[in-house]
Amino acid sequence: MPINEITSKADFLEKILGSKDAVILDCYAEWCPSCKTIAPKFEDLSNTYTQVKFYKVDIDKVEEVALELGVRTMPTFMLFKDGEKITEVVGAHLSVIEQGIKTHLL
């Protein structure tokens, strides 16, 4: 499954908070080495868990979303269901992200 980019606050409100689906959001920055390292693995997860919608947001380009979510460290992965944030994983911890998907989104 493709990972779609959130490009504005309106986009975030519609696709994340307005969604009834299980959603995971990767909050990243272009300058973040850990973000670049985990990106292909995050894409692998999107291909494995096709019932979950995967999104990413560049916190430098869409700062108002980063501020609203309280993102302080990159990468931060946030899991949402029915438009509500369920949990988050701070850091490039693939096994913790996958466990979060299995526990909270499936």
Keywords:
alpha/beta, Glutaredoxin, 106 residues, five-stranded mixed beta sheet, 5 strands
Can you give me a brief rundown of this structure?
The protein is an alpha/beta fold and 106 residues long. The chain has helices at residues 9-17, 33-48, 63-69, 94-105, and strands spanning 4-5, 22-28, 53-58, 76-81, 84-90. It has a 5-stranded mixed β-sheet with strand order 1-3-2-4-5, with helices on both faces.
Describe the fold and architecture:
Belongs to the thioredoxin family. InterPro entries: Thioredoxin, Thioredoxin-like_sf, Thioredoxin_CS, Thioredoxin_domain. With 106 residues, this protein is of the alpha/beta class. It has a single domain, classed as Glutaredoxin (3-Layer(aba) Sandwich). 42% of the residues lie in helices and 26% in strands. It has four helices and five strands; from the N terminus they run E-H-E-H-E-H-E-E-H. It has a five-stranded mixed sheet with strand order 1-3-2-4-5, sandwiched between helices. It starts with a strand and ends with a helix. The model has no long low-confidence stretch (mean pLDDT 93).
